[in-house]
Amino acid sequence: MHRSIIRELETLLGASGVLSNSEDLLLYEYDGSIEESHPDAIVFPARKEDVVSIVTLANRHSLPIVGRGAGTGLSGGALARRGGIVVSFSRMNHITEIDPENRRAVVEPGVVNLDLSRAVEKYGLYFAPDPSSQKSCTIGGNVAENSGGPHTLAYGVTSNHVTGLELVLPDAKVVRVGGRAMETPGYDLTGLVVGSEGTFALVTEITVKLLRLSEDVRTLLAIFDTLEEATDSVVEITSRGITPAACEMLDGWTLRAVEAYVHAGFPVDSAAVLLMEVEGLREAAEAQAAEIGDVCLRHNAREVRRARDARERALLWKGRKEAFGAIGRVSPSYYVLDGVIPRTKLTPTLLRIEEISKRFGLVIGNIFHAGDGNLHPLILFDHRDADQFRRARAAGSEIMRLCVEMGGTLTGEHGVGMEKNELMPLMFSDSDLDLMRKVRAVFNPADMLNPGKVLPLGKGCGETRLQPFPISASGEA
Amino acid sequence: MSRLAASLSSRLPDLVGPARLIADATSLAACEVDGRGPSAILQPNSASEIAEILRFASAERLAVIPTGGRTHLGIGMPPRHYDLALDLSRMNKILAYEPRDLTLGIEPGVTCADLDRELRQKGQFLPIAPRFGDRATLGGMVAAGMDSPLRYGYGATRDFLLGVEFVTGEGLVSKSGGRVVKNVTGYDLHKLFVGSLGTLGIITRLNFRTFPLPPRRQMFVIAFDAPSRAFEFCRSLVKSPLDPKVLEVLDPGTAALFQARGVDFLPSGSWLVAIEAAGHESVLARHERDLASIYREARAGGFVSLEESQRELLFACLSEFPSIALAANRTAVIFRVPILPSAMPSLLEGIRSLADDHGLTCAILIRALGVVYVALLSPKQSPVEPPLEANTRSPLINCSRSMVDLFISQGALPTIERCPLDVKTALGVWPPPGAENDIAQRLKRVFDPRAILSPGRFRGGI
After folding, report:
1. Cβ of B439 and A342 within 8 Å?
2. Residue pLDDT, tens place only, B242-296
């Protein structure tokens, strides 16, 4: 990027608001995915007006713009695929307003997910979407990716919790969509923009719904000798009318890797563990926990453990929450996949993944949101070995095909980004994709905002899908 | 008499076959929208037939309005043009229902009543309430953006609609979303279809997440002598750990409307709060116990725990408030006002004093999570359909106009969901377009470049 543009940016934002040294830029070449791209400058707006100025400047110089929160994304959504300016929202991290009576909060995009829940805890409220990265990921990033998390089984993903947005469009116009009320007459533009992966607009303000903290929560861990009995239990639990707040599963390989590091008490000779949580009114939580226990035991669970207090609950969750760290210990790199299948297809799908693992000669662990069929296969590989990296990608792509074949989808919560945009034709026809492209053009006609994401790039654009070696990808799911 | 050129009419049978082309006067009249009828009704069987029809209509610039049970055609502005009605009632198949996955895929013409029966057999339901009569279809409910008292506990349509397949104005078969309960693949175009009144495309398949029926449901009604007490009660309830699935406030006018429909088991002349709890016996008992204690603190005037048949009747009334008000008073003007709970008490005062000022009465139903329905009623019930008699018209229009101003001054964006044509013409039914209008207009052009789909019925003249 020309030095004069950097100077212009520095004039707008001050010297501390712009990064352009190559060693600084290096840090922004990555996110939680295995992708990599090189930005030309990083800018740190402090307010909406800064964002407008940045977009205006970028337009004048025909530079791509990419929004970025904490960079924990798992599909390359925050990477500058075509270079240009990365707009980091880390300084726009204020909670503008908390309205406990109406259960709303207005936040800047850089507010860390968990910080919002902590700020509203004193009112007995919280923000429901809880990606595993919630200690660092931002609400702006959640909005871009329509993020989920373990507890979205009961409470839904980000779009279910956003009522309004303030947008800076790629032509630097500021537009508000939605509002604080439950609904807005006209097209649901808020619903359209949430999950558009930063390709429609830069979001500068978000109005979210808050939920009331539950009176009671029960956490159970069920241990199984076969994978099938674990998945059958999941299907029966949900179809019986119990909606656990969370229903997480670790397969045998994964639970052994986790146990070796975390010592969560998983029996290392078991084939699967299910970590489940029900919450709500004391009576409801109690009845549902009892029923879940029964279902698991009838499906031959070896043991069902129940947390008796907060300490035991934390211990049961420890194995899940620190799982990714545990995997990092046993493999130089891993590739976290994200696909969804109908719950009832869990067993055949996991068997096919095992077969893919053998065929590609790579270990694949499974740790996932079983309750909604959201798989997160982890492909272990060594990034220093080009052949392993190639095989990891190929196996990943095959697993994605498998999900679609099973009647599922390419991503449940991580987004398409630049990881899966070339796989979109597995789900969508050319005319579906063409319509999506036209809808994007309504917001972003020149494709200057987060270019090269979500939709396939099409033939002849000369872009190669070969990637250099990534640093150990350490994302969470 | 058909307004279509004979050369065009003669080509219609090629599109669906003569048996599914209808042009008799009675049928055409049944498809009227605000007094304007189509020249022909086509009854397609499939997405590909719809695509062919729309390619034809697009080439000839014929305006098309999709219809289902024709129960809510009065929503929106009068169409600018209307040549063909696309009657989707033959597309009434359940395409995929996987109770164990809690997922459902249906054609748009499936009626709410049929679907409810089907789901009930598997112990499940969709929180779009079953409607009076057997005609309302799911495609219509989604396109008209109808809401349900159950949105308090289970979310609104946009929250459990997983995907939509549709045909664009140019006749392209397309889709968005998926068939599984969790999915973020691609842009969520399907969200745009909720409440879009058939202006973006013809829905050919809807995918929903279904919900397990709770083991038991129980509805409680608590009476208050003043609205302030009813709201105070709701505030306490919302802060408590209780987990109601329905929470609605009825003014005495609404209670009277419901009474005429057989809801004769409630105290009259009071403000009523209706609460539904769902779950195991222990959960219902807890609700009853805690509600009774909040009720005692609020010094309310009565506490009723409804029998199952009473619950069903009241629930149906809560779901069907606009239709009930309209049936009781043909010239009713019914507003749907999304507003935050904290703003409700002062809004209510304003509404009632405006109605008084104009010599009108009103019935108010409040979905406590943030939607207020107001039916403005003329004192003398007009026995005939509009146009209104001159002496009724001007207070109704004047009061409606002041009402819209009031809502907007309180930061709310009201829609007039139902009203006589005169009021529509005088006031418009949508709030004035906002800053987002430009985006909405451009989206419309993407989905329907020749503006043949339900032209003019939507916000911003779309």
Report:
1. no
2. 999 999 999 999 999 999 999 999 988 899 999 999 999 999 999 999 999 888 8
Note whether A428 and A397 are same-domain residues. no
What CATH superfamily is the domain B321-427?
A: EIF_2_alpha (3.30.70.1130)
Does A152 contact chain B (CB < 8 Å)?
yes
Position B78, amino acid: P
Tell me the pTM.
Answer: 0.95
Q: Do residues A112 and A30 both lie within one domain?
A: yes
Q: Is A396 helix (H, G, I), strand (E, B) or coil?
A: helix
Q: Decide if A438 and B446 are in contact by the 8 Å CB cutoff.
A: yes
Give chain A's domain count: 3
The H or E element that residue B338 is part of is strand B333-338
Q: Are B458 and A186 a contacting pair at CB < 8 A?
A: yes
Minimum Cα–Cα distance from A421: chain B residue: B186
CATH no. for residue A313?
3.30.70.2190
pLDDT at A315: 86
* C-alpha to C-alpha distance for B214 and A43, rounded to whole angstroms: 52
Poorest-confidence range of A334-343, B1-10, B42-51, B125-134?
A: B1-10
User: Degrees (nearest 5) of the Cα angle B232, B234, B238?
Assistant: 120
Smallest CA–CA distance from B280 into chain A, residue = A284
What DSSP string runs through A297-326?
HHTT-SEEEE--SHHHHHHHHHHHHTHHHH
Q: Which of A324, A344, A364 is the last residue of a domain?
A: A324
* Closest residue on chain B to A444 (Cα): B439
Backbone dihedral region for residue A60 (phi beyond 0: left; psi -120 to 50: alpha; all else: beta): alpha
What is the side-by-side strand order in the sheet with B415-418? Answer: B302-305, B216-224, B271-279, B246-250, B361-367, B371-377, B333-338, B415-418
Q: Are strands B173-177 and B201-209 parallel, antiparallel or unpaired?
A: unpaired
Chain A residues whose CB is inside 8 A of the B196 CB are 187
**Domain check: are A234 and A313 in the same one?**
yes
Is CATH 3.30.465.10 the right assignment for the domain spanning B1-213+432-462?
A: yes
- pLDDT tens digit string along A328-341? 888 888 999 999 99
Residue A186 half-sphere exposure toward CB, CA atoms < 13 A: 27
A124 touches chain B (CB under 8 A): yes
Interface size, chain A vs chain B, as Cβ–Cβ contacts under 8 Å? 235
Q: Which of B156, B214, B458 sits opposite A241 (nearest CB)?
A: B214
Per-window interface: A 339-368 vs B, CB < 8 A:
340-344
**What 3-state DSSP class applies to A407?**
coil
CATH of the domain at A26: 3.30.465.10
Taking CB atoms and an 8 Å cutoff, what residues of chain A touch B204? Answer: none
In a shared domain, residues A424 and A409: no
Question: Distance (Å) from the C-alpha of residue A444 to the closest C-alpha of chain B?
Answer: 11
Are residues A400 and A422 both part of a single domain?
A: no
Find chain A residues with C-beta within 8 A of B437's C-beta.
186
A305 and A449 inside one domain: no
Any CB–CB contact under 8 A between A159 and chain B? yes
For chain B, the domains span 1-213+432-462, 216-319, 321-427
Residues on chain B touching A189 (C-beta within 8 angstroms): 436, 439-440
Owning domain of residue A278: 216-324
Give yes or no: residues A175 and A301 share one domain: no
| Distances A369 to A129, A340, A366 between C-alpha atoms, Å | 14, 9, 10
CATH number of the domain encompassing residue A364: 3.30.70.2740
CATH topology of domain B216-319: Alpha-Beta Plaits (3.30.70)
Q: Same fold for the domain at B216-319 and the one at B321-427?
A: yes
Residues 279-308 of A with CB under 8 A from B: 280-284, 286-287
Neighboring chain A residues of B183 at a CB cutoff of 8 Å: 340, 409, 411-412
Q: Do B172 and A431 touch (CB under 8 A)?
A: yes
Q: Is the dihedral of CA B231, B237, B243, B244 positive or negative?
A: negative
Same domain, A208 and A225: no
